[in-house]
């Protein structure tokens, strides 16, 4: 029997950290679905056509270097508005979700579109300022040039594109447990997520 945990939310809300921790705690496989869109975005920056790039995507592409840059993130959110790109990525995600040992998938539309039947749905969020602050620190710490105002504008631009698009916009599933991490430490957010999963098992 498969057991699926769907974790959605905006950029830099702590979704990735929470997802990895939940997967490790319960011994589940983990898929960061943002990597699919990033891999397509990267290929588009290299000159490929978005839908063809999405259809040609292979699991190995998710390990490609250079997927975590701000330029690729913006390219990802631009290809993510294209319905045929999203459609081309559905089967891969659903197959992953059905893994025998159970899986955690994190993204924007996992609980609403990809796995509406998931046993647990979490919506991990935080204020735009908090998220920009975290992204800004990460960029600084990894040696990137960054200005807070620019990072905040970036976060807001991606939020707008992700939540206003016609196909699979970012929004919580009706039955999602909402976790606002604005005033939480990482450990608190993780504990909150683990207890939500525990109560569904
Ligand atoms: O989560 P991450 O920042 O890596 O995602 C990059 C972009 O990919 C997002 O801004 C969003 O536009 C898109 N995405 C999506 N659906 C998902 C995961 C990511 O549209 N399930």
From TrEMBL:
Its EC number is 2.7.4.25. GO terms for molecular function: ATP binding; CMP kinase activity; dCMP kinase activity. It comes from the Bacteria. GO terms for biological process: pyrimidine nucleotide metabolic process. Residues 5-197 form the Cytidylate kinase domain. It catalyses: dCMP + ATP = dCDP + ADP; CMP + ATP = CDP + ADP. GO terms for cellular component: cytoplasm. Belongs to the cytidylate kinase family. Type 1 subfamily. Pfam families: Cytidylate_kin. The gene is cmk. Keywords: ATP-binding, Cytoplasm, Kinase, Nucleotide-binding, Transferase. This is Cytidylate kinase. It is an enzyme of class 2 (transferase). Its main location: cytoplasm. It is found in: Cytoplasm. ATP binds at residues 9-17.
